[in-house]
Amino acid sequence: MQSPILHKVPNTFPSIRDIRLYTLTPSESGPKLTGTDLHGSSMKGQRSISDFFHILDCLILAVNADGYKLQQLDDDHRPLAVPPIERSSAGNIAAGSYLIESTVEGGEIVQRWIPTFFDFLRAGTGSPSKPKAKKARHDGSGSTASEKLDRDPTDDSQSFKMRLINRDKGCVVCLAAGIQEFYEFREDSNRFEGARIIDVALNELWDTRGYSALVSDPFTDPTNADNPFASPTTRTKKDLRRINSLENGILLCPRHHKDYDHFRFAISPKTHKIFSFHPATIKLQGVKVKAPWDGQDVLYPPPHSEFLETHYSTSISRAMKGDGDDRELDDDDDDYEELEDYEELSEPEECQNEKVRIWLHDSLSGSEIMSSLDFTAENKGNIETSPLGIISV
């Protein structure tokens, strides 16, 4: 019997990013319709208009105007004969193309730059090499830190997890959703995982932003290094950053841990409500997480709002910008291969388009990017598609 001929396994699944956003940019021949680097998701028709505007508010800003609106475009990128969508509009956002325009004539729209986890990875800092990552795994740590002192030994993982168990009692997301996923028996250990908000691989981000000064977890306090009940890496002085502090963790079930590391949902640092970024987690939208903040104890401090904010802004940026690859930051074996690929694609010299190269170079230098674009109501009809796929600077 003849062996079958192998062929490439097709991957024809669509992206969840089914919304494309455009702007009008001035030119000698008149305003042109320009594609931005913002790609949203209707969440299979389940994303409310108000929530979509909430995401956009984090990425764009109206200048000399009281706001902005969205004009839906047809397949030829012409405005549809329908009223523009405003933040007060009822219902859900539909898949399609939209023109972002000011609510008043002469208004201006600028794009915000928000800090994310990936800024440090693109810059080539805080991201370990493959050999060191593999050595860490061979040592049995399962960590993604670049140096031995940054690694998270198995005994410290257990200490971190047990402290989270005593604080959160169960998967904080399941409990928030009304699912009684409590840690009840000693044998329940493999049903729960200690999730770090800022991963140990991001030690450069941790240092640059001075996160060590924000934590108060007594188990990681260097002054308690001689205490037998302190965190193992505190006693051995291997975690001087205090990245294994409870302020940097939440207890999750394996499924929600994976979703959290893949940025499929985030927890608002202000309201503690869940914001979904994937259709698989849309049912969690608006659910309030309470467990870490219930019955606060100085021995078991809750997640720090600054760490939640960083994960939240990263989730928003990842959901609306980039190529849509399903990147994650966790302790899995494949992290470094994925993150290294991400870095290689993001180096400025790899970019052929000069405007994109300049934009990316500014991004990597850490400067705030605000691209100024003119929007005028009378020019809305005079549009043409531009090949530029990013807001010019």
UniProtKB/TrEMBL annotation:
Domain of life: Eukaryota
InterPro entries found in the cross-reference section: HNH_nuc (IPR003615)
Positions of the UniProt region annotated as Disordered: 126-156
Domain HNH nuclease as annotated: residue spans: 231-267
This protein's name: HNH nuclease domain-containing protein
Source organism per UniProt: Russula ochroleuca
